[in-house]
Amino acid sequence: MDALKAFDGNYWKTLFDSRIGKTTWPYGSGVWSKKEWVLPEIDSDDIVSAFEGNSNMFWAERFGKQLVGMNDLWVKHCGISHTGSFKDLGMTVLVSQVNRLRKMGRPVVGVGCASTGDTSAALSAYCASAGIPSIVFLPANKISMAQLVQPIANGAFVLSLDTDFDGCMQLVREVTAELPIYLANSLNSLRLEGQKTAAIEILQQFDWEVPDWVIVPGGNLGNIYAFYKGFHMCKELGLVDRIPRLVCAQAANANPLYLHFKSGWSNFSPVKAQTTFASAIQIGDPVSIDRAVYALKNSNGIVEEATEEELMDAMAQADATGMFICPHTGVALTALVKLRNSGVIQPTDRTVVVSTAHGLKFTQSKIDYHSKAIPEMACRLANPPVNVKADFGSVMDVLKTYLLSKESKQ
Ligand SMILES: Cc1ncc(COP(=O)(O)O)c(C=O)c1O
Ligand SMILES: N[C@@H](CCOP(=O)(O)O)C(=O)O
User: Fold this and answer.
1) CB-based contacts of 147: which residues, under 8 Å, 6+ apart?
2) Ligand 2 lined by 144 (C-beta under 6 Å)
3) Which residues carry this modification: N6-(pyridoxal phosphate)lysine (predicted)?
């Protein structure tokens, strides 16, 4: 930090803004365009990058105006990315460092992680890009098919384990302590050095004006800390004069941080994570609990939770306004709705909801919802297809009925 403070805030803003949209290696990456803040000593030839980052800041106009009475609501689409989740931001840094170590002759035979799907997808793709073996520990039958096929297709050694994520996390820590396999989970802070750049991007996209709130879904809890670190570095280095209030949103079925927050940050206790459609945050014993508590305490932060019906309805509502989000973004949107309803977030507050994965990785949850195939869930926004005989008369009848019903709702 002392070395970085040799340059003032305007220097850094000008430097970072000058690199947006360029293809000069490695600055076309949203991560490596901040190389001096991420991993300054690495040789650019050692960097493994898919030009990740620079994700869309979507103005959620209809969701904001119609559902929460806000005009300044934005969704940061970190899931519109190389492997479909924000994990690419951290994985480019970690795999680049492993690439550098192997070129130096260090005995790293491969890279391993435990995963609820997105970390393993990112790890396998970046390792395949660099020709580095990857080994992924996955909880059997607890991740989406899209998330499972990614490491398989990218050539990872895929272990399907009869336990949950927390069990996989324990095993990968034990194994990487015994074998020369480099651990890729967010225990390794290199991941967070990459993920923090999404916070800097948010400030860039608002022309360095600071939003009032940033809402992030939380599981292993590295990402909420990464956002805090990115905003805090911008404040400490003089790019901005404050940081946003952070909100970490959890699924009620896997909510150890939420319970800790509601207890007034008294003794933390892991929970046994229950099944949730937000499967990537089905985590009961998060490795970054201390980092997350630090981030929330130092950003006047809040933790909220979402039931299964709340997160699924929020996902359906967002999709009906033109997005195609994952269930985890539904968790974050539910937190927004609750904080608006309680008056904590004001109608004019500039608010960013971080979307952490693309909805295309979680289509089964949407199919179940729109098929009304979820026991004890109303699925009140279900929009099932209409089966019609393939003749002009039948189609016209159905369409007239549909159009009249739309007209009656105008
Ligand atoms: C899609 C998605 N959203 C949110 C999260 C939560 O991020 P973190 O584990 O850093 O809290 C994860 C991973 O855990 C994820 O895969
Ligand atoms: N949701 C994560 C769980 C592991 O998180 P990490 O940040 O520690 O890698 C995943 O996608 O596997």
Assistant:
1) 116, 117, 118, 120, 121, 280, 361
2) no
3) 87
